Amino acid sequence: METIDLLRQRIAVTEELLGVVKIMKTLAAVNIRQYLRAVESLADYHRTVDMGLQIFMRQEPGELPATQTRARRWGVIVFGSEWGMCGQFNDQIVGFALEKIRELVSRPEDCVYLAVGHRALSRLEEEGVAIREVVSIPGTVSGIAAQVQGLVLTLEEWQNQLGLDRIVLFHHRLVSKTQYQPQMVYLLPLDLKWLADLRKRPWPSRVLPTYTMEREGLFSALLGQLFFVLLFQAFAESLASENAGRLTAMQIAEDNITTRLQELRQTFNQSRQTAITEELLDIVAGYEAFNHQD
After folding, report:
1. Which of 126, 131, 177, 231 has the greatest number of CB atoms lying within 10 Å of its CB?
2. Which CATH class is domain 28-247?
3. Res 209: pLDDT
């Protein structure tokens, strides 16, 4: 049986661990809010890019400038986490991505993979996937833009060097305060139906703005901005989902630690009561022995 001093030490350590878990829960809740606000603030920027494409489509009735090569190669970007303690977050997104790729691509060698987050990298490598590049996940909203800009440059380089004509993102998206689900988003090819709808959409004023830029250069610039918006959104939504997973994991940990702490305290009280009882019995026994000597 454990001594009272040892039980007291274990209770103190467990209480410290419980405090750490509560802090992590609070940080996860704060992070979820800030990343969701980033997604919401991105809506205006996304709308501006859409309006630029709408102007282009309404003034350019012909075919779109070439944005694809003839090769049928896929660029696959999987958004995971940089750190653990977020439940099945990485397992779910990697499993979802590989299942979808098996449905879409007949030859695995036609895919080029980029992992966002070293936990996603580890899970993909465990599944036997060769990763061409890995991108770290920023710790704050302010760090997302720089990572997205670098990622856009990487994708442009891949298009030129590897002949990619399909680029697809896999990331989690929050569906409630603590629940998320994986989703697949195409960067390329462009959704032609969506572009056709943009062309038909009424302009909000009487005068349609015009432009003087060269046609292909303007379309390429708008496409780059669209990539930026979609990648930024993927980062922010994935980070919000990661923190939701961490919040759930920490809640489970808090419940388990609280239960364990109650058990330790109960054992401590019982042991202390037993020790007190034994001391009293020793005193009584000593008193009786003293009386018998008289």
Report:
1. 231
2. alpha beta
3. 85
What DSSP string runs through 142-179? GGHHHHHHHHHHHHHHHHHHH-EEEEEEEEEEESSSS-
Rounded CA-CA distance 156/131 in Å is: 18
- Separation between Cα atoms, residue 91 and residue 119, nearest integer Å: 9
- Residue 68 confidence (pLDDT): 46
Q: Report, as an integer, the average pLDDT of 73-91.
A: 92
Cβ 199 vs Cβ 191: under 8 Å? no
CA gap 193, 175 in Å, rounded: 26
Can you state the angle between helices 4-59 and 192-200, rounded to 10 degrees?
A: 60
Tokens of 118: 């070293």
Q: Give residue 248's identity as a one-letter amino acid code.
A: T
CB contact set of 225 (below 8 Å; sequence gap of 6+): 49, 52
